[in-house]
Design goal:
alpha+beta, seven-stranded mixed sheet
Length: about 1900
Amino acid sequence: MAASELYTKSARVWIPDSEEVWKSAELVKDYNNGHQSLQLMLEDGTKVEHKLDPKTKNLPHLRNPDILVGENDLTALSYLHEPAVLHNLKVRFIDSKLIYTYCGIVLVAINPYETLPIYSTDIINAYSGQNMGDMDPHIFAVAEEAYKQMARDERNQSIIVSGESGAGKTVSAKYAMRYFATVSGSASEANIEEKVLASNPIMEAIGNAKTTRNDNSSRFGKYIEIGFDNRYRIIGANMRTYLLEKSRVVFQAEEERNYHIFYQLCASAHLPELKVLKLGRANEFLYTRQGRNPVIEGVDDTKELGTTRHAFTLLGINESYQMGLFQVLAAILHLGNVEIKDRDSDSSIIPPNNSHLTSFCELVGVSYQDMSQWLCHRRLKTATETYVKAVPRLQATNSRDALSKHIYAKLFNWIVEHVNKALIANVKQHSFIGVLDIYGFETFDINSFEQFCINYANEKLQQQFNMHVFKLEQEEYMREQIPWTLIDFYDNQPCINLIEAKMGILDLLDEECKMPKGSDDSWAQKLYNTHLKTCSLFEKPRMSNRAFIIQHFADKVEYQCDAFLEKNKDTVNEDQINVLKASKFPLLVELFQDEGKATSPTGQVPGTGGRTRLSVKPDKSRDKSSKEHKKTVGCQFRNSLQMLMGTLNATTPHYVRCIKPNDVKQAFTFDPKRAVQQLRACGVLETIRISAAGFPSRWTYQEFFSRYRVLMKQKDVLPDKRLTCRNVLEKLVEDQDKYQFGKTKIFFRAGQVAYLEKLRADKLRVACIRIQKTIRCWLARKKYLRQREAAITIQRFTRGYQARCLAKFMRRTQAATIIQKYQRMCVERKRYRQKQAAALAMQRILRAYMARQKYLALVREAKVVIIQKRVRGWLARCWYKRCLRAIVYLQCCMRRMKARRELKKLKIEARSVEHFKKLNKGMENKIMQLQRKIDEQNKDSRLVIEKLASVEISYAAESEKMRTELNRLHGVEEDARNKTNQLSTLLEELERLKKELATTQKEKKTIEDWTQNYKTQMEKTVSELKEQNGSLKKEKDDLNRMIQEQSQQMTEKMTRAIAQETQQLETDLNEERSRYQNLLSEHLRLEEKYDDLKEEMASSSHISKPGHRRTDSTHSSNGSEYTYNSEYTEMEDGSRTREDVTRGLDTSLTLKLQKRLTELEQEKQSLRDELENKEDQYQRARARDDAQFKKARGAELEYESLKRQELESENKKLKHNLAEMRHSLLGDKTANVGAPGSPAYKVLLDQLNASCEELDVRKEEVLILRSQLVSQKEAFHHKETMTEPSVFAKDVSKLKDADELKQAYIGLKDTNRSPRFMPKSLDMNELLSRLRSAAPDIHKLNEDGELWLVNQDLKETIRLLEQQLQTQRRGHDNEVESLRGELQSVKEENNRQQQLLAQNLQLPPEARIEASLQHEITRLTNENLELMPDDPAESREARVVILRRMVDLMEQLEKQDRTIRKLKKQLKVYSKRIGEMGAGQNEGQTSPGQMVEEPIHPVNIPRREKDFQGMLEYKKEDEMKLVKNLILELKPRGVAVNLIPGLPAYILFMCLRHADYVNDDQKVRTLLTSTINSIKKILKKRGDDFETVSFWLANTCRFLHCLKQYSGDEAFMKHNSVRQNEHCLSNFDLAEYRQVISDLAIQIFQQLVKCMDNILLPMIVSGMLEHETIQGVSGVKPTGLRKRTSSIADEGIYTLDSILRQLSAFHSTMCQHGTDPELIKQVVKQQFYIIGAATLNNLLLRKDMCSWSKGMQIRYNVSQLEEWLRDKGLMGWGAKETLEPLIQAAQLLQVKKKTDEDAEAICSMCQALTTAQIVKVLNLYTPVNEFEERVSVSFIRTIQTRLRDRSDSPHLLMDTKMIYPVTFPFNPSSLALETIQIPSSLNLGFLSRV
């Protein structure tokens, strides 16, 4: 297809633009041949006309399809040209935030000016082991490719990092070295990788500076060779430097800085150790203030100096050397501040006592006078004489600056040399990877000698790059057998010849430097004369005679000739150097001691680097002519560059091109002009041009078939896919020159893939249109049918509604007629009734009025008559009263007159009586009589008066009555008159009242109206109040509901808080477990490394075979976590014998490892304690109660079980001691006193017998006393045990005799046997101090204490008997008789015991036990009754105690009887089964004689089984055989399939039980130690075998469960049967060993997880991502030069079914091995986490996997995994939750990503993903087809804004090395130990069942 045919309407092209370099446009109409222009429309809608060049007729570049934009590899683009490359880089950088892009073999890195989370260790691990095309472009991918090729091809590698200042070269090189240091590890413990990385801050401090383009610009080039051994581990490094920018030391441009180290020293001048340098702020020194910006934002120079000093220390440069370096640097700063003044026009002078020169001289140890002399003078030598000449101020200043530059260059050289010494390899280097960090092509406004050298180096590197790219293209074509045609590419050899050939620029420059009067102007003229007419690449500027132009491969550069000669000579005053050589400062002397000896091109001794020397001074011993041959800077640089090119040509190069996106250092800002300038300069476009000249697009046949299957018809598809592709291409592309068929790939010319994509898109578009047409027709018909059905329904309902309305209208009409009839009738009736009522009312009122008038007339007449009658009566009474009043008055007057007369008479008589008295004194009697008479008269007078008064009163009353009547009559008369007067008034009043009545009625009506209104208003108010009340009630209800909701919310909140707190506690617990288990792994790794070091040192004399073995730096395997003292002792002994071998080991390293081991053990112990505390805090109270109950119950059980054994053992022991004592006394012939038969002997013998019997009695008393105390203690205090000394304190205080005290101690010691396997004996002093306040001094007991006490007792008894022998002779006979009687009773008792024993032996076993117990009870009762006190109360208490004890013993007897009956039944069943099995096996194989003996076996089998206690006995020498056969040589497959699960664990525990039973602590210790070490050994040997690791994980856990189940702890015993509780350990507490075995189980679990990782990780990416489970959903896009190794052709290797089969295999293996179900769940959870994490990590690092179709594939694969979980019954145990991040990532790929609602949905959906992961997926989302849309930048920013407040991990990838903390829940076994049979296949015949 012709190219012009592609320029059709809607085709998109690129046109040049002055601002954006290239601008996209779309054709408005088709282009035809002959058109002079193109009609285009820009993206903003502007229409333009693009004129074509009339000569070339070149059409604008076509734009690639959208689905190819943003590709990882630029060579995958169909159209390879400059605008396509620039646009692809811009889209990846701006939209996807991807800074790395492949361009064939080149990695293009764009500086983001922002810290990105893509360089962490997990990213390194993700890229480790991956092929370069499998993951997204990254510097780690290039480093991995170099590392892999070095190991695979046995060829040295180089990584060439180039770019201009500020492009990020140093950072890229640093990350490449960091990758090598991380993935390869170190061959020794000298931390070489850390030293390699530590060299970076040093070189940055002394070689980097701030420029206008970069804050940390490298001002020198360096090539670091990282050395590897034959196992490809880092062993050392070597650094070579190139062309240090010395001029920066004395001069900096605006906004630039000097080297960082100067500012670090100035910022740290306040430190005490730096006070001696006399430094200040950077603004105080000339060399640091010229740029006027001494501070870099965000950089702390003081902190950076600390980093630099730490790096110096790590590289072996001690503090004294560091201070020396700082002194030299400070001296340079002081030298720059030395002020030189003019003395005259030809001379200069330094003022005396210059402080800065003084400081300089003090710091470097030189003479002030000499230095000031030679700064202002110079020595001139002629043929005959030497003289000193003063120099002008300017020349002196230049000399001062030259000296500063020279000193700094020497210091730089010295540091590089010592860094190389620190990085030098101690062993032979097998291979190396070189990292070249060198300057890129530079062009400035003013270009000088430095830019010339830099561009010269880039010309050489570009030539090497072009040749390498051309070579790779040629190899690719030859490998695929494609016809090779020479591709024309740009060869810059002419430019290189112009610079370095004979009579080239450098030759002419060196020649001019040798001329005595050579100058820049004369050199420029020589250049013009030599090259201007002969070389087209050399030009002369029009307006200058002191410059020249060179046409470089990237651009034309104009160089100014000024200072070329001076910089090339690089001269320094020799006298100044001599002054410095005479310095008293040793470091300065060391810097200049090799002056003039530098013969290498770099000016350094071999191995110290390749930096260009600033000054090369010949040795003094050489003659004058040698000075003329001193190499110039240009010559040295050319030689070092040739050496570098030789090194690069001998290696396989890898290219990293760093691009600076903008000059303002803004994050993710892309300047197209600057970018395209650098792309042209770095050779990327040249690579594109070379690729585009041939067949740039390459597809494998399978990829082509999968992608373009839609273009084929069914008949075109053949079994041979290669033939199918050939046939299809011949039909689709007629021009066969546009493609070529290789062996494995199809090669296409540029643009053909775009054409095929267009055909594919057209085919898909047609198919889509057809699908849309069919679907739209179906949707329209469905819509029509729905509408038709809806219309019919609406009509039916409408008609029904209308009928109902008509019926309703008719009913209403009839109702209205009836209503009208009755309403009219009511109105007429009402009107008639109103009229009738009105007539009746009028008649009634009229008749009433007439009646009232007539009544009133009658009343008036009657009242007038009455008035007349009363008036007439009143008048008559008035006349009568006047007459009566006059008569009475007259009477009164008459009576008054008479009374006066009478009074006068009486007065006269009184006077006459008085006189008479005087005359007649004797007439007293008469007087008395008269007096009496007077009294009587007075009395009568009073009576008369009273009558008179009563008459008067009655008269007065009558008068008053009459008067009242008169007044009444007068009133009546007055009333009549008044009434007459009032009649008119009343009539008026009546009228007034009528008026008032009318007014009142009106007011009443008004009041009624008001009342009605008020009532209405009140009703309204009431209704409002009711409504208000209702609303208030509603509010109340709402408030109540809100309160309830709030309370419910508070409850839920509290519940959530409690749940969160619980979850947090669980998380903390898991974190502590994880930390503890990680420490176990770290400790194990250090131990293994230590063992490996010992093995390596032991075998250091042997040369290891070469081979590639790559080891991850984080690799660790299981080993010993718990180290025993015996093992340390063995290691110490072994270390003495291997002293010569380990002499080479680094002592500091060993001490460091030992210290680290100690710290880890301490931290492990603390973590273990903390873990135990956290695990116990939930059940601490219950555990305390259980422990108390266990103690009480344990004491009782211990006493019950040990009582009889104690009595019998003590009896036997004492009898044995008595026999020994008798034997010793009978055998003693030395003393006559003690001779046999002598009286003394008899007495002594009798006394001994008595003492022994007394001892028996005392012992029994102590036992009885102890039983009583225990019963009392248990009755009142259940929380104390009988083993506490306080129980016996009161009773022991009563034991005054030493014998009693010793016997009590023996009983206590036997009862309180220590549960530890190293019991300690109790000192007698301790016993007496506990029991008595004052005690004698007694020696310590031996191990068990019994023999010593008995011996001491007998000795004291013998001494007492000897002393009392003489005093007791008289009572000897009586005592002998009594003793004989007692002896006879003892003999009788013994005979009776023997008879009872014989009788018991004849009884059956059940009766025998019962009889023996009853006999024992009877005997103890009798003995206790004999020993009872005489006190009745005490005797009664003793009897009660004895009876209670008898009842307890009987209950115990009944329990034992029940247990025995139960066990007998089980034994019968087992014997029957065994008999049946034996009969079945021996049927047909035995002889008749053997058949006769078969009935005997069932009789003996139950007896043997009954005696078997579930223990296995072995000899001490068979322990190694046991471990070997049971652990080291055991085949897990046979044990898992044929025998019971956990059989080795059961066998080991049964052996351990026997060691515990015999109380052999050494045997217990050695057995456990051997078991643990053997398991570790087999795991170390076969740790990569999943079946072995799983088998021993199951057995280790079972062994741990057995130790818990039979430990005797109540918490574990409650799950046991009665028989299993009898099998508990009795002597030793193995809690510490349980912890050790638990740690071992943790290590095995971690090893199991690593085995699963190694098996699953190769399957995960292929099965979960690359394999198409749903065929045809995802398409394949062009991949460019970097092909993925896992292509579709290899998809059959690992699929999802492979993963599911492997998971099923894991599950079935663990189930066969008897792994605990809880542990299986944890393993499956870990497996699913690995699958989810690895899949998600790969998805996040692969842009080609982030598409909609891939999301569908992932979700389908996850559903298959969930189905597997459901099939295995593991759905609800956290395994599915580990896949949640992967599920959400798949959903994120499939959801809509346009609107804000979509953003909200994504934020709420992706809770398990971090913000970085969400943004990364959105940035990587790539459409596979044209119908998909990319995610817009604005949408991604919306997501970032919404997720800004989310606090999550900053890491991008999930940690695939993370292992969940494992727990081992207690899982008791129901299997009885006595039923376990040992198969003969285990070769354990030396074990005997006990």
